[in-house]
From TrEMBL:
Name the record gives this protein: GNAT family N-acetyltransferase
One term of GO molecular function: acyltransferase activity, transferring groups other than amino-acyl groups
Annotated ranges, domain N-acetyltransferase: 1-161
Keyword annotations: Transferase
Keyword Membrane tagged: no
Pfam families: Acetyltransf_1 (PF00583)
Keyword Transferase included in the entry's annotation: yes
Length: 201
């Protein structure tokens, strides 16, 4: 399996990725903001995403968004193909996109909103901490992305102070090292070692 910073060669997967994002959100009844083909195409073409592939099939995807004039970064749209779930792929992708975010925006705070315990664990390992919503970007465009979520009415009733999602934030000055780099490399090495031994991940 290859986990790469996106380029134009990955555009062949954009329709499948968009469809799986939509299907996954429908199954969960919450989550990922709907993104157009054009939006995802630009993210991929500009190298602001991470794509995992194996045997010419897409395996997983995540992209970078910036808010509040680059003060905040979100690693959004994390999705893994149903055929490759429960193999540690999401962790590898999150580590890679986190590293890319730190390289491109070293002074930005990195945040996420999630209802998934697995994602919370990954974020925690990377140095994110749970926070209240007021510590996140207040960019109206970001919050408008929640309109596609079934819980949007709850968010608005609570005056955007909280909802069913847990907010998590990585603050660069509170972290002496980018532990995501170490985690990513060790997990990739472990994955490659197991692959060579024909063991399942």
């Amino acid at each position: 399996m290859e986990i790469e910073i996106s380029s134009c060669e990955h555009l062949m997967y954009v329709s499948e990725i968009q469809q799986e994002m939509y299907d996954s959100a429908q199954r969960r009844g919450t989550g990922i903001a709907k993104r157009s083909i054009e939006y995802l195409t630009k993210k991929i073409s500009d190298g602001n995403a991470v794509v995992a592939t194996e045997n010419d099939e897409w395996v997983g995807f995540c992209y970078i968004e910036t808010w509040s004039h680059g003060q905040f970064v979100a690693n959004s749209g994390l999705i893994v193909s149903p055929n490759y779930r429960n193999r540690g792929v999401a962790t590898l992708i999150k580590n890679k996109v986190f590293q890319l975010s730190r390289e491109k925006y070293p002074n930005a705070k990195i945040f996420g909103l999630t209802t998934g315990l697995a994602v919370m664990k990954i974020n925690s390992d990377l140095g994110y901490k749970p926070v209240i919503y007021s510590e996140l970007t207040q960019d109206e465009e970001f919050w408008s992305g929640c309109k596609n979520c079934v819980n949007y009415e709850i968010l608005m009733k609570k005056e955007r102070k909280n909802c069913l999602c847990t907010a998590m934030l990585f603050v660069p000055e509170n972290n002496n090292k980018v532990n995501g780099t170490e985690i990513q490399q060790s997990e990739i090495d472990e994955y490659n070692g197991e692959k060579e031994s024909n063991l399942s991940v």
